[in-house]
Amino acid sequence: MTSTGVRDDLGLRPHVEAPAHLVTARTAPPSYAVAVLGEWGGGKSAFLRHLQTLTYFLALS
């Protein structure tokens, strides 16, 4: 369980932190295009759930 309350069985946290900080940065450009590519069952949905949760918590702080 991470500090955001999300299980991280795939060890995605380090990969999620960079885009989450970019999206919530107050000085970053306002537009983004993101592609999450991978094989079936490769963790794309888990990555996006982690990204959504971490982005939410970062935006609150």
Written description of the protein model:
This protein has helices at 13-24, 44-60. It is an all-alpha fold and 61 residues long. It has one domain (13-60). It is flat and about 35 Å long. The mean pLDDT is 84.
Q: Which secondary structure elements does this structure contain, and how are they paired or packed?
A:
Elements: H1 13-24, H2 44-60
Helix pairs in contact: 1-2
Q: Give a count of the beta strands, DSSP E runs of length 2 or more.
A: 0
- Rg result: 12 Å
Distance between the termini: 20 Å
> How many DSSP H or I helices?
2
Search tags:
0% strand; 61 residues; mainly alpha
Summarize the structure.
This protein is mainly α and 61 residues long.
